[in-house]
């Protein structure tokens, strides 16, 4: 049974580009899969606590010792694991903050990176493999080849590496909406047409991926 896990992470609300794009994708995907399951988690509105030493020890202890982890921490982490395992498609809305991901996304990832999920050396698949993962980003500027900030993107390379380490890169797609600041920053006004095109291209790509 297809099941969609929809995760938003922007600290902004209605004006968030990633929220708008993931919502449009979800609407189209659910129309195309009317009998599918759906789970939503908003890490921007309800961030996951950063892991503690105790949680880290528990996550990596094969004996199952709780190491002082509270029942609430255990229940939260197990719920996150269950959501990802159940999903056949995951769409993540990830704005770029200071050239990388929001800390709320890092907190989510830190609870997923466990020995049970990590690919063993030389292995091509693991417990989380085979899912469609779509990362929707919004960036105030552009980091494309030839731009002044080429090489400043610490968002996509990190996500490729860490999601790949836990088997979530088999069918991993990135959809970038760049130059979003051109619509609101006067000094970038001349780049507004490029920003509008990037947003339109992102919408079209997501429409195709929702099939």
Automatic annotation (TrEMBL):
This is FMN dependent NADH:quinone oxidoreductase. InterPro entries: Flavodoxin_fold (IPR003680), Flavoprotein-like_sf (IPR029039), FMN-dep_NADH:Q_OxRdtase_AzoR1 (IPR050104), NADH:quinone_OxRdtase_FMN_depd (IPR023048). Residues 3-178 form the Flavodoxin-like fold domain. Binds 1 FMN per subunit. It comes from Streptomyces tricolor. It holds the Pfam family Flavodoxin_2. Keywords: Flavoprotein, FMN, NAD, Oxidoreductase. Also exhibits azoreductase activity. Catalyzes the reductive cleavage of the azo bond in aromatic azo compounds to the corresponding amines. Quinone reductase that provides resistance to thiol-specific stress caused by electrophilic quinones. FMN binds at residue 10. Belongs to the azoreductase type 1 family. It is an enzyme of class 1 (oxidoreductase).
């Amino acid at each position: 049974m297809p099941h969609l896990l929809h995760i938003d992470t922007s600290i902004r609300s209605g004006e968030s580009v990633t929220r708008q794009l993931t919502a449009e994708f979800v609407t189209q995907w659910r129309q195309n899969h009317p009998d599918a399951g759906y789970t939503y988690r908003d890490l921007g509105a309800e961030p996951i606590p950063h892991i503690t030493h105790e949680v880290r020890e528990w996550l990596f202890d094969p004996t199952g010792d709780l190491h002082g982890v509270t029942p609430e921490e255990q229940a939260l982490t197990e719920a996150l694991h269950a959501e990802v395992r159940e999903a056949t498609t995951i769409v993540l809305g990830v704005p770029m903050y200071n050239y990388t991901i929001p800390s709320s996304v890092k907190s989510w990832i830190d609870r997923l990176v466990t020995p049970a999920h990590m690919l063993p050396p030389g292995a091509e698949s693991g417990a989380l493999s085979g899912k469609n993962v779509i990362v929707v980003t919004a960036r105030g500027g552009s980091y494309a080849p030839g731009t002044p900030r080429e090489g400043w993107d610490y968002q996509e390379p990190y996500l490729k590496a860490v999601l790949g380490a836990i088997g979530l890169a088999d069918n991993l797609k990135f959809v970038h909406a760049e130059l979003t600041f051109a619509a609101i920053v006067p000094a970038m006004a001349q780049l507004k047409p490029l920003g509008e095109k990037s947003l339109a291209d992102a919408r079209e790509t997501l429409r195709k991926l929702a099939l």
